[in-house]
């Protein structure tokens, strides 16, 4: 037999809303998402809430529970006191669509901006080889379920809408770190990119993102700090700095007096000592953060003007987005396209 518990749930839409009180039955072993479902089945059938797996794996039931960003399906009711009021609100950093559902497309835009993994041009498919030690380095970051709790928590954008253009957020810093650690990624220097275009410099390593990550990814310690350290090494190592002054003398942002750049100028002139060896990344880094870059917007609407999903989404033979494997690849692959050979195998 369950007990009655007091819940406050935010109800409303993009025009406004407020917290509404509910007395709702809670049974042993239940999680907050179970209680939301019981509300939908009883007093609030029109309560909007996103969820899919109820197993902490799809990342869709992100919400704020007593002010803490959490997964509804992974938050046990037993973690609250018997008499405690449980307050459930939508993610604060993203615009509300309705009730507990927010528009998280900011994150998809940042994902689109991140240059994709690119192996060397002369590497044939099937010749990709990675040592286990290289796999293990970035394995942690592959656990991300894209719940966007870290993105929601980060103070750089949580209270500063204006920073969203220039800041990609912790989820995309771990993506940059993962690709930076990938031995076959030759696209660009990911550290330089993170600093110059993803707004890594805004992060002041408060570790709030790490604290809320349901996958326990050490976002700050294992991705952000190592990337920051390497950027700083380049920029402030005295020998590298001196070398860059000698070799860059006469260039537009050179300083005739040899004085260090004024930190207040850092937005305009990021002076990276040393070179990544990638001229495109280096040029981008010298220009500094691209404050005015255009953020691409999603090209196909998820719903039409009546709020319904277009029929083509159900009938089209492939999803609207381009396939990451290339549009000319169909599945299942022919058996001779699969390569199971171990790197140490002789033939
Ligand atoms: S550590 Fe950096 S990215 Fe993470 S929440 Fe703090 S400021 Fe944001
Ligand atoms: S890094 Fe963690 S908190 Fe951020 S989106 Fe991935 S799983 Fe969620
Ligand atoms: S419903 Fe999938 S993570 Fe909660």
From TrEMBL:
Cite the InterPro entries for this sequence.
2Fe-2S_ferredoxin-like_sf, 2Fe-2S_ferredoxin-type, 2Fe2S_fd_BS, 4Fe4S_Fe-S-bd, Beta-grasp_dom_sf, Helical_ferredxn, SDH/FRD_Iron-Sulfur, Succ_DH/fum_Rdtase_Fe-S
Residue ranges constituting the 2Fe-2S ferredoxin-type domain according to the UniProt record: 5-92
GO BP terms: namely: respiratory electron transport chain; tricarboxylic acid cycle
Query: Could you tell me one molecular function GO term of this UniProt entry?
Result: electron transfer activity
Q: Which domain of life is it from?
A: Bacteria
Q: What is this protein called?
A: Succinate dehydrogenase / fumarate reductase iron-sulfur subunit
Necessary cofactors:
[3Fe-4S] cluster; [2Fe-2S] cluster; [4Fe-4S] cluster
Q: In which pathway does it act?
A: Carbohydrate metabolism; tricarboxylic acid cycle
CDD domains per record: fer2
Q: Which family does it belong to?
A: Belongs to the succinate dehydrogenase/fumarate reductase iron-sulfur protein family.
Keyword Secreted assigned = no
Biased amino acid composition, Basic and acidic residues: 257-268
Which NCBIfam families has this protein been placed in?
Answer: dhsB, PRK12386.1
Any idea which UniProt keywords this protein has?
A: 2Fe-2S, 4Fe-4S, Iron, Iron-sulfur, Metal-binding, Oxidoreductase
Gene Ontology CC entries for this record: plasma membrane
Pfam families linked to this entry? Fer2_3, Fer4_8
Q: Write out the ranges of the annotated region (Disordered).
A: 250-347
Iron among keywords? yes
């Amino acid at each position: 037999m369950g007990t009655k518990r007091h819940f406050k749930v935010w109800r409303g839409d993009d025009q406004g809303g407020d917290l509404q009180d509910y007395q709702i039955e809670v049974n042993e072993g239940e999680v907050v998402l179970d209680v939301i479902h019981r509300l939908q089945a009883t007093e609030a059938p029109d309560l909007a809430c996103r969820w899919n797996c109820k197993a902490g794996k799809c990342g869709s039931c992100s919400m704020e529970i007593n002010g803490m960003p959490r997964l509804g399906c992974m938050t046990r009711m037993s973690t609250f006191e018997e008499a405690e009021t449980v307050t459930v609100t939508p993610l604060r950093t993203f615009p509300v669509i309705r009730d507990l559902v927010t528009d998280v497309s900011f994150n998809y835009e940042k994902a689109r901006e991140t240059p994709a993994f690119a192996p060397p041009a002369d590497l044939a498919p099937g010749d990709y080889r990675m040592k286990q030690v290289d796999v293990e380095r970035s394995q942690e970051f592959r656990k991300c379920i894209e719940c966007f709790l870290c993105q929601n928590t980060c103070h750089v954008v949580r209270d500063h809408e204006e920073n969203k253009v220039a800041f990609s957020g912790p989820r995309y810093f771990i993506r940059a770190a993962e690709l930076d650690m990938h031995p076959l990624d030759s696209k660009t220097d990911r550290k330089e990119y993170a600093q110059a275009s993803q707004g890594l410099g805004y992060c002041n390593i408060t570790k709030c993102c790490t604290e809320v990550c349901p996958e326990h990814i050490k976002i700050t310690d294992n991705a952000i700090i190592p990337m920051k350290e390497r950027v700083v090494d380049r920029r402030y190592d005295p020998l590298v700095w001196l070398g860059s002054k000698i070799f860059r003398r006469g260039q537009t942002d050179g300083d005739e007096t040899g004085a260090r750049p004024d930190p207040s100028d850092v937005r305009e002139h990021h002076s990276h000592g040393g070179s990544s060896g990638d001229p495109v990344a280096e040029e981008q880094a010298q220009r500094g953060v691209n404050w005015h870059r255009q953020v691409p917007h999603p090209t196909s609407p998820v719903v039409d003007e009546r709020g319904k999903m277009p029929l083509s989404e159900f009938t089209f033979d492939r999803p609207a987005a381009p396939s990451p494997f290339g549009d000319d690849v169909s599945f299942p692959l022919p058996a001779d396209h699969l390569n199971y050979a171990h790197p140490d195998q002789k033939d």
